[in-house]
Design a protein that fits this description.
131 residues; single chain; mainly beta; Elongation Factor Tu (Ef-tu), domain 3; six-stranded antiparallel beta barrel
Amino acid sequence: MQPIGLIRAPYASLTEVPRHGGLSPKVKARIELLPEFAEGARDIRAGDTILVLFYFDRHHDYDLVTTSRKTGQIMGVFSTRSPRRPNGIGASVVTVTHAASGELEFTGVDMVDGTPVLDIKPVDTTPVGVT
């Protein structure tokens, strides 16, 4: 697996990052795609909702139980958004605010600057059961 790009965000460290991007809806960041992957984003437009898969590259150890930042409750890591995970893969649903050649600006930021992006997928916002 190889990164397709990098996150450019206003957060320099994990301690600055909100629990999830919805907690700071006006903060913007961007994905800088590597040149060889830029064409893959050519149909993404402002207003699109996308799923960004990324690698928690600053954590190489993990905890199977952790304390929830939201509730203070002890929880299994797979029921939290903790970056300290066995495989270090993060997923965030974000809203694209601007799309240009090789760059996607978005809101919903909960990643550190320089985070490697592994994949981008569209999010189908159609309610379940509606065709």
